[in-house]
Structure formats: structure tokens, C-alpha cells
């Protein structure tokens, strides 16, 4: 089923990617068509302007020739009685020549008018085609932009879903690891201590039966010690699961108590610094932050190679800020978890910290690099 989900997600990404590429290709083609149409429109507009210029000139020439021809005819009629036959023949030749020129000019005018009309019809069609091409280019561009945005959202959602599924599995495994740890602690401490107490009570009973009060008293003392140790171990397990100080005295005191317990065990020396006046946060937020601090200190103890670190707590007016630092060996945040159990648990712990902080409305950032230690920053809006 998991493989099927991965295949489906990959196929969906491929489909969207192919669709987007096709749309982008069509957009480029339509843009090319628009540019070609625009060039043709510009060319024909230039031709039309040239023809209109020629038409203005030829119309003026036709008008001129018509006037001159009319004047020639009138002159020819008026001078028919005063001039000789030769003079009349020359004057008639000039009028005939102007008539020929007028006929040629009229034909040219008619031709230019047809060309002008044809170009205007062609331009109207090209203008409509160009407008449609530009609209289609804009539409395809809008579709491409929309698909690109949707593809980004869908890809992000797929990644979030896959990450959530993976994180959910890791959180379950981390919870199981925590249950195993508690079970081992109860078995190795409380259960063993109670078994030893029962054995000591049996020894006490035998000593009393044999009339050995000193031996019985010694066995009672050993039993008391075992029960006292069991009680301390039980309290420690309870403290690890849910520190009572968190409910009674607040988050800052509970974190300070956690640092003190590490120091008392000679396992970690954590420098604790509190700034600002403490204010309460919702209980589920405080327990989430406490767990993040607890996990961070555990990582310092088990993975940093150092026995020293620091916690700075700042109750600023706008937000609670916590910074946990160590100067240990650090690690590569981009590196995938290795197959080693310790490394797996560390990465599971970091995943649980980040997921818990996200659900609690906190911002948790981890910075680390090999050889330069690790810093955990937690910010909780007030």
C-alpha cells in the first residue's frame, strides 16, 4: 500500500509536470503566431499608408488634368475661327495628349482605390486575428500561471502528506521506544528492588524462627533500604513521565529541577539562566516545551560527546524564548538517519520535538554542524 501511494504521488506529479510543459509550449507557439500577425499588420499598414499617399497625389493630378482638358476644349472651341488649320491641329494635339494622360491617371486612381480597399479589408481581418491571438496568449499565460501555482500547491501538499505519514510512523516508533525504556527501567529498578525486599523479608522470617533477633533486624534494615530505593526509582519514573513540579511550580522550575537532577547524578553540568518574569502558558504547551528540553538534554548526554551545556530561558513580553546549546561534535542536519539504533532514536526524537512544537504553536529550530555543536531554539508566542 505504501509503495502504491508513492507511485500514485509520483504519477500525479508527472501528469501535472507534463501538462504544464504542454501549456507552456502552446503559449510559446501562440506568442510566435501573435508576433507573425503583428509583423504582417505593420507591413500592410505601411503599404496602406503608401497607397493612400499615392492616391492623394493621383487624385490631385486627375483633378488638374480634368481642369486643363476642360480649359483646352473651351480654348479650342473659341479659337476655331481665329487660327489657321495648322494652329488648330497643334491645339487639338495638346488637348488629345491631356485626355490620354487623364485616362491613364484615372485608371491608376482606380487601381490604387482597389488596392486600398483590399488592404483595408485584409487589415480588418488581421486586426481581428491579432486580437484573438493576443487574447489566447494571455489566456494560455493565465492558465500556465494558475497551473504552475496549483502544481506547486499540490506538490507541496503531497510532500506534506508523505512527510506526515512518515513522521506518524516515526512518532509511533518513538512512543514504542519510550514505552520499552520505561518498561526496562521498571524491571531493572522497581521490580528487582521489590524482589530483593521479598527475599529479605523471607530471611527476616527465618531469623525470627531461629531466635536470631539481630539477624532479623539486619534483614529488616536491608528490606527498608530496598523499599526506599524502590520508592526513589518509582518517583524518578513518575518524574520522567510527568514531573509534578511542572503542575505545582511552573515550567521554569521544572526545567531547573531537570538540570539539577542531571547535575546530582554527575552526568551533565547544565548552566541555567532565567530572564524575565515567568507567566503561565497552556498546560499542553508547557509539557510539550518541557519534553523538547528533556529530549535536548538527553541528546547532549548521549550524542554530543560533552558533559556540559547551557539553557537560557527568556520570558519576554511577546514570547517565551528558550535556547539550549552544547559545544559537542554536532551532526549534519541534511544527512539521513543511519541504520544505528542510537542515531535512529536521535532523529526520531528530533522529529517528535519538531512535530510537538508545531502542534503547540511554537517555533522550534535546530542548528548544528559537525564539530561545532548543536543549538536548539524554541519560541512560544505569549
UniProtKB/TrEMBL annotation:
InterPro entries: DegS, HATPase_C_sf, HATPase_dom, Sensor_HK_TwoCompSys, Sig_transdc_His_kin_sub3_dim/P. Keywords: ATP-binding, Kinase, Nucleotide-binding, Phosphoprotein, Transferase, Two-component regulatory system. The keyword Phosphoprotein applies. It holds the Pfam family HATPase_c. GO terms for molecular function: ATP binding; phosphorelay sensor kinase activity; protein dimerization activity. Residues 284-382 form the Histidine kinase/HSP90-like ATPase domain. PANTHER family: NITRATE/NITRITE SENSOR PROTEIN NARX-RELATED (PTHR24421), NITRATE_NITRITE SENSOR PROTEIN NARQ (PTHR24421:SF10). CDD domains: HATPase_UhpB-NarQ-NarX-like. It comes from Selenomonas ruminantium. GO terms for cellular component: membrane. This is histidine kinase. Its EC number is 2.7.13.3. It catalyses: ATP + protein L-histidine = ADP + protein N-phospho-L-histidine.
